[in-house]
Amino acid sequence: MSNKIDRTLLALMAVVLVALPFMASGYVVYVVNLLMVFVVLALGLHLVIGETGQFALSHAAFYGVGIYTAGLINNLWHPPFFVSILAGGLLAAALGYVIGALALRMRDIYLALSTFAFGEAMQWVFLNWQSVTNGSNGFRISPASLFGYELVSDMKAYPFVVLIAALLLWATVALSRSQLGSAFRAVRESDVAAQAMGVNVNAIKRTAFTLSAAYAGIAGGMYTLFASFIHPESLGFQTTILILTMVVVGGIGSVRGAIAGALAFGLISELLRQALSFQEIIYGVILMGFMMFAPKGLFAGRAARRAPPPAAPLPAASRAAATASKSPQRSAA
After folding, report:
1. Percent helix / strand / coil, the chain, rounded to 5
2. DSSP result, 298-314
3. pLDDT per residue over 112-127, tens digit each?
4. Which of 119, 114, 74 is nearest to 235 (CA)?
5. pLDDT in the model for residue 320
């Protein structure tokens, strides 16, 4: 039944996305482009937190790496936009692989603090590397192009942004149903049990961080398709909390929840654009409320909601053997 609902919702979303350019204004198209970027960011964080259980707070840093890498390549050489997007995703993935090494030695709050420190360090780099990022003055991005066709408006970038988001959604669902996805969830439940089952825990954690960072880098490249300016302040702790709130409120461990959270909080962030000083407080209150009263989120995975099945009764002979094994052994006189 749930699969039918998912297919129906996806079909309805596809119809809306196809019809939107013929019905909406340029600002609405810009907002939808931004929502597609948030969907990819939430899917990437879902891989490392929801699927693998590694609490990371460095997603905004990888997002910034993708934006600056794609923007620099586009400004200097003007290649087809998919080249700059792939470059941003690959560089972010390489950094994610390095950060993944931290996951082999740290857990829980220590991992969260170390990845948060990395994110803050990267924002310092974005703010102070004047020759590359133009520092606090912000970074201008030239229009992306595809074999001479320039994406000079939100409307022209729209079909490519939606297509990339759809491809990454398909990849996420396929990954979740694959053997690698099962290994991710085994590590999430218990490192020791996963290793006892033959799962290479170290390799799985590094893979999760690498893929998550690649998603964020690609999301940064998508942003350069329709945006012409980026400031380092928009890649700080507030963005990290926003993406984390999307995944937690939507439902940790649920692709459906990551998408719903991205769409909902992407719209909320746009509505609160005139109240920048209160955004962090509002996101924090919402996040704390859900952590306290609905820790599984609004759309938690079915496996998380389903109670474990009762144990099958043992045969009579097995019960007798189990009882005998539990009884104290008499010492020989």
Report:
1. 75, 5, 20
2. TT--HHHHSPPPPPPPP
3. 888 999 999 999 999 9
4. 119
5. 44
Kindly provide the b/e burial profile for residues 81-112, where b requires at least 16 CB atoms within 10 angstroms of the residue's own CB: beebbbbbbbbbbebbbebbebbeebeeeebb
Structure token digits, residue 118: 């990395």
Task: State the DSSP H helix or E strand holding residue 149, giving kind and residue range, or none if neither.
Answer: strand 149-150
How many Å apart are CA 327 and CA 168, to the nearest integer?
Answer: 57
Residue range 45-76, pLDDT digits in tens: 999 998 998 888 899 999 999 999 999 999 99
Tally the C-alpha atoms within 13 A of residue 199's C-alpha that lie toward its C-beta. 25
313, two tokens: 């009764």
Cβ count within 10 A of residue 263: 19
What are the two backbone dihedrals, phi and then psi, of residue 329, each rounded to the nearest 5 degrees?
A: -80, 135
User: What b/e sequence results for 192-227 when a residue is b if at least 16 CB atoms lie within 10 Å of its CB, and e otherwise?
Assistant: eebeeeebebeebbbbbbbbbbbbbbbbbbbbbbbb
Given a contact cutoff of 8 angstroms between Cβ atoms, the answer to whether 267 and 69 are in contact is no
Count CB atoms within 10 A of the CB of residue 149: 11
- Cα–Cα distance for residue pair 148/118, rounded to 1 Å: 38
pLDDT digits (tens, 9 = 90+) for 159-187: 999 999 999 999 999 999 999 999 999 99
55: left (phi over 0), alpha (psi -120 to 50) or beta: beta
pTM: 0.86
